[in-house]
Amino acid sequence: MQGGYRLQNITSKKTADKPVLSVITIVYNGEHFIERTLKSVVEQSYTNIEYIVVDGASKDNTLQQVKHYEEHIAFWISEKDKGIYDAMNKGLQQATGDYVLFMNAGDQFYDGTTVENIFKNDSNADIYYGDALIVDDNNSDLGLRRLRPPKNLTWKSFRMGMLVCHQSFIVRRSLAPLYNLNYKIAADIDWCITCMRSASKIENTGLVICRYLTGGTSWQNQKKALRERFDIMKKHYGVVSVISSHLAITARFIGQKLKGEKRTN
């Protein structure tokens, strides 16, 4: 099942001198969270947005909510997929914008002017990135993400963990490959590093770009996620570098845990 104004031969009006951002939302049985995402995207002040929604044949009222916003959605599809990254690949294959960004069910732009502010000063970078505010199921703020984006991001930065939230990572579409489906949980890390290795200019927006719904696949499958992350880091950075980085990450984690325990004593 498919829909969207693109299938009705309707072309959304875009400003010629501004880049088009393809926002892709992946969802499955997300009736409790999908509307906050849909509204966040369609209510952006920036007009050059191409919105794509990929639903994994939800069994709840997700699709009805998507159809409610259909006049603002370039393309949507609802069918079974082989997992989240297969669904993301479907979205990438439908994208026609200059840049792509994933904003999945429950996630939102920080505010209504976020995309406009991203492209305000510089519209020619290969990658734009920023910070992420964590929210819970009730959309209550839980504070900024623990891993903070560095001032200057390079493909080597992720040796110390995924320092930039996927929903705060905007990539020139021509540099964005399909996700590696051999990774079931951590393919987004591999994808981000691959994009950065191809980029010539990576721009720190200095903005909080997204409100990120806490949880997700990697949190639900911690052991498998860690194994996949190690394999990805080894592929990009080599064994010696990854082992030393993981020792530093472990030390950082222990230090943070000890600080937390001291606060509670």
UniProtKB/TrEMBL annotation:
Looking up InterPro entries in the UniProt record yields: Glyco_trans_2-like (IPR001173), Nucleotide-diphossugar_trans (IPR029044)
Q: Which residues form the Glycosyltransferase 2-like domain?
A: 22-172
Its Gene Ontology molecular function terms? Answer: hexosyltransferase activity
The record's annotation in SUPFAM superfamilies points to: Nucleotide-diphospho-sugar transferases (SSF53448)
- Spell out the protein name for this chain: Glycosyltransferase
Annotated organism of origin: Solitalea agri
